[in-house]
Amino acid sequence: MPPAAERVPWRWLAAGRASQRLVLVVVFVALLLDNMLLTVVVPIVPTFLYTTEYEGVNSSAAPAWTEPAPPALKAPPFSSTFSYFDNTTVTVSGSASPDLANGTESSRPPQPPTSSPPPPSSCPEGEEFLAKENVRVGLMFASKALVQLLVNPSVGLLTNRIGYHIPMFVGFIIMFLSTVMFAFSGTYTLLFIARALQGVGSSFSSVAGLGMLASVYTDDFERGNAMGIALGGLALGLLIGAPFGSVMYEFVGKSSPFLVLAFLALLDGALQLCILQPSKISPESAKGTPVVTLLRDPYILVAAGALCFSNMGVAMLEPTLPIWMMQTMCSPKWQLGMAFLPASISYLIGTNLFGVLANKMGRWLCSLIGMAVVGISLLCVPLAKNIYGLIGPNGGLGFAIGMVDSSMMPIMGYLVDLRHTSVYGNVYAIADIAFCVGFAIGPSTGGAIVRAIGFPWLMTIIGVINIAYAPLCWYLRNPPAKEEKIAILSQECPMQTKSYSTQKALRAFPLADDSDVEAENAE
Q1: Which of 255, 351, 511, 514 has a Cα-to-Cα distance from 343 of 20 to 30 A?
Q2: 423: left (phi over 0), alpha (psi -120 to 50) or beta
Q3: According to its UniProt record, which reaction does this protein catalyse (predicted)?
Q4: How far is it, in rounded angstroms, from Cα 89 to Cα 69?
């Protein structure tokens, strides 16, 4: 092979390491796998626990229910079947079967036992078990967010010291281990541990990935577009996860979807090794603003609150909607995941559409409208009578959350540029904490609220909270910059300050009579 041909792969790798687009691809794939694993368990865990724990216990006791004869016969358990073979014993059963006593066969089948028959197979038994399962499944789903909530601040500090490459690769390794553990876990305890381990890997991947994008895309408009594409990976994971998990679980088996995700995670790890050089340490040149200081910024808190409450609605739906569908709609397994399909498709559309439009119409306005639509959609969910009635509310919910996420993620980076040091690890750790609070409080409290007052009231509460919070997004319309940051931004990034400058507003006032003379003298 000629020497020039041998250098081609190395030239491609060198160009790839300097490419913004390939960094975006890596972050896109990482968020895709994280959120596929997040949602693929949503339709699997409730039915898997019901099958293994409730039906498994009752199937062992089933012979005791089917064997006893009707109470009126007062006969041994085998007497009713024994009479088919020896008509001399018909006197034992008395007048229970007159056709058999006459020695003739009847076309009518034998009467079943008088005890109440089980309900149709499509409607699960055990109302009390399902009520308790709301709480257990909610705690399992919340464990991921709780662990991620605890790990995020440490990951933010770590990225400020050693860069984004190593934390990104560590997140891949932990995510792979969590996926394999999900595939081969057969008890609630092991599934709980796998879910918590996923929270650690997700913290490394999301904080490092979003911080890497913010550092690579320094232009505010390009950063907004890149964040919209990266959140499209998150949306695609949500889109594929629940339907993929329900169909694979129904027709292939529990382990199959997790093994597919483990294989895709290996491909993502190979891509990171080739492109991102995880062995390379690249600390930030400037010291980042501490997390405590960022948490004192009211504008960052408003943005984080919008992320938290808008995502808390879908977080409450994840453990409670499948069980509610099992109770009220008698839905089969595959429908439990398909119910989330409209929300995922509309979220994918919303993040990509408003990644561009939000910069033109105002990200604060986009977030305000999105939160209001989230609340209205949640109020409409309990009105559905079948899976088709969920298409409208879930579709509106996903589209509105896409509006909020695609607007707030660039705002978080912009607020750091405008009011603090332009190092993004800590602020995106706060953004991820906001997600985690929503996905921790949502499932853990949602199951308890459903058990106490019912699913419709849960949707009413979280819907009203989102509508009430929406007006606070107005405060993000024109956030003030610190004086030293105004001077820096005016020299380095003039385009970032033009949309927040008050000079254009001053030109709109009517001019005085002598203003023309003053303008000529100034020139």
Answers
A1: 255
A2: beta
A3: dopamine(in) + 2 H(+)(out) = dopamine(out) + 2 H(+)(in); serotonin(in) + 2 H(+)(out) = serotonin(out) + 2 H(+)(in)
A4: 15
Q: How many residues does the chain have?
A: 523
What's 83's DSSP letter? T
Kindly give the parts of the chain with pLDDT less than 50.
61-107, 112-121, 278-280, 489, 492-513, 515-520, 522-523
Q: In 238-260, which positions are buried (b, 16+ CB within 10 angstroms) versus exposed (e)?
A: bbbbbbbbbbbbbeeebbbbbbb
Distance CA 463, CA 470 (A): 11
**Residue ranges of domains in the chain, CATH in brackets:** 9-54+125-484 (1.20.1250.20)
Helix (H, G, I), strand (E, B) or coil at 488: helix
Query: Whole-angstrom Cα distance, residue 340 to residue 318?
Result: 9
Cα(80)–Cα(90) distance, rounded to whole angstroms? 9
Q: Give Cβ neighbours of residue 53 (< 8 Å, ≥ 6 apart).
A: 129, 188
Q: Comparing C-alpha atoms, which of 309, 298, 502 is closest to residue 415?
A: 298
Nearest to 249 by CA among 260, 237, 234, 239: 260
Q: Rounded distance, CA 522 to CA 517, Å?
A: 9
Give the CA-trace dihedral at 88, 90, 91, 93, to 10 degrees.
150
240-272 residue pLDDT tens: 787 888 888 888 888 888 999 999 888 888 878
Tell me which DSSP letter residue 53 carries.
I
Closest alpha carbon to 433 in 313, 300, 306, 304: 304
What is the token pair recorded at 138?
């909610």
**Going by C-beta distance under 8 Å and a sequence separation of 6 or more, which residues neighbour residue 162?**
281, 282, 283
Q: Which residues contact 425 (CB under 8 A, 6 or more apart)?
A: 155, 156, 157, 158, 159, 160, 164, 207, 208, 211, 284, 288
Three-class DSSP category at 385: coil
pLDDT in tens, 207-236: 888 888 877 887 777 877 787 788 777 767
Q: Are 42 and 144 in contact (CB under 8 A)?
A: no
Q: Render 490-502 in DSSP notation, one character per residue.
A: HHH-HHHHHTT-S
Where would I find the H helices in 163-254? 165-184, 188-216, 220-251
3-state DSSP call for residue 69?
coil
Q: Name the one residue in this structure whose structure tokens are 């898997």.
A: 48
Nearest CA to 340 out of 366, 372, 316 is that of: 316
Distances 118 to 58, 65, 110, 131, 170 between C-alpha atoms, Å: 12, 11, 18, 19, 50
